[in-house]
Amino acid sequence: MLSASLNDEQMQSIITDLQVLIRQPSISATCQGLKECATLLSKIMANAGIKSELLRLNVEDQIDNVTINPVPPVVFGEVRSKSNPQSKTLLFYNHYDVQPVDPIEKWNEDPFSGKVIGNQIFGRGSADDKGELITRLKAVEFFLKETGDVPCNIKFLIEGEEEIGSPNLGKYIQKFKDKLQTDLVIWESGYVDKDGRAIVSLGQKGILNTEIKVHGPSRDIHSSLAVAIPNPAWKLIELLSALYDSKRGDILIGGWCEDVIPIKEKELQLLADEPFNEEAFKKEYGFANFIDNQDSYEVKKALAIEPTCNISGLISGYTNSGIKTILPATATAKMDFRLVPNMNPQKQFEKLVSFIRSLGYSQEQVSIKYLSGEPAYKTPIDNPYVKMVVESASKIFNGIILNISSPGTGPMYLFKEILNVDSICIGSTILPNKLHSPNEYAELDLLNKGTKCFIEIIKNFTSVKKNQI
Ligand SMILES: [Zn+2]
């Protein structure tokens, strides 16, 4: 059976291949090096014994107003079990694109160097998501090299547009639905806290992005006219105050939460058990009190299962230095609403619009735009693969924290909607970290543990029997 620890040669091959990937820039925001990275990746996969191919969309399949044309390929990989070809399938979802490197002057090293200093490997993508990806590829490679086989069927779906919101992932999954059939998705990343405990997360919130614009006079006008002409900025402030009670943290939009399914007792218990360091959290984000003085349990609950009503930007009037006495022509708020399972972004948008109209704001006075939206998804905690992943990871990490949903958003719902499959997040990214920031890094000992954890998951995957599912 496969040895429980990685030898020096195996660890070196993790570092070498990760460096090869980091050194190939692949920035989806600027379309830099995507095709090259996909090609490089399929070579690394071939060396690992994973059969790979580049999947593509036809031009007519691509979404309207695509930001990247042609859409970068999805790298698909597959290893079929020789000894157990009828076994269930495990699919790893990852991405090969990275965030831009700006501000470049804040990097201590070349962002594409892959330089190793002590326990850290630096570079854009070292953690998000090339570091996470390499642990999965290496787990399969080491399995194949040591045993000549894998005990279950394994697939990889590695996309190139995650960092710009996965605009074509749904199209890809739909088009290659048969090829992508699987019994479980292991999500692209997962966190490890500073005590070395792995956070196994089961869900992601959804999101609705909107823009609310109040129209005033036909142009910016002299502010002396404020005695007689209504200012759209004041109107916007009134309107926004009617949507949300910022003292109590309550969303006031009529019927906003009526579709939300009540949380299960077991989930509440998990939330209660989840560790939360209130002081460290406050220190990290630089504030003194939670909204409505919530206690730790209420904050954990809010982060995992409550919708939000957030102003992400306000635009009106003169905002440069000094004075300019005007009454602005318009006032705009950019708003994002995090959604929880069973809230449909389009339906929530209609609720928002009808609530604003019910307050007496006409279409001429206030325009409301739907910018984008995606629903939430949460894997049920009694999905038997959850237990298997938790047990496998417990053997490797210094403990496990089971989290029912991350406060962030991602395309997990697509896998449920199109392939009817659940997803579990587990990985090797340290908390806090520098994802999307200068000096991004991954920790070598966690890459080591992450690889061992996936070896363990592959080993135990078939222990989950059909009748348990
Ligand atoms: Zn990212």
User: Uncertain regions: pLDDT < 50 for 5+ in a row?
Assistant: none
The kinds of small molecule bound in this structure are: zinc ion
| Structural domains: how many | 2
Q: Tell me what portion of residues adopts beta-strand conformation.
A: 15-25%
**Main beta-sheet annotation:** 6 strands, mixed
Which range best describes the helical content: under 10%, 10-25%, 25-40%, 40-55%, 55-70% or over 70%? 25-40%
Distance between the termini: 27 Å
Which outline best applies? globular
CATH architecture of the largest domain: 3-Layer(aba) Sandwich
Tell me the layout of helices and strands.
Layout: H1 8-22, H2 34-47, E1 51-55, E2 74-79, E3 89-95, E4 116-117, E5 120-122, H3 130-147, E6 153-159, H4 169-175, E7 184-186, E8 191-192, E9 198-201, E10 203-215, E11 221-222, H5 232-243, E12 244-245, E13 250-251, H6 265-273, H7 278-285, H8 296-305, E14 310-316, E15 326-327, E16 330-339, H9 345-358, E17 366-374, E18 377-378, H10 384-394, E19 400-403, E20 406-409, H11 412-419, E21 423-424, E22 429-430, E23 441-443, H12 444-460
Parallel strand pairs: 3-6, 3-7, 7-21, 8-22, 9-19, 10-20
Antiparallel strand pairs: 1-2, 2-6, 4-5, 5-23, 8-9, 10-16, 10-17, 10-18, 11-15, 12-13, 14-16
Helix pairs in contact: 1-3, 3-12, 4-11, 10-12
Zinc ion is lined by residues 99, 128, 163, 435-436.
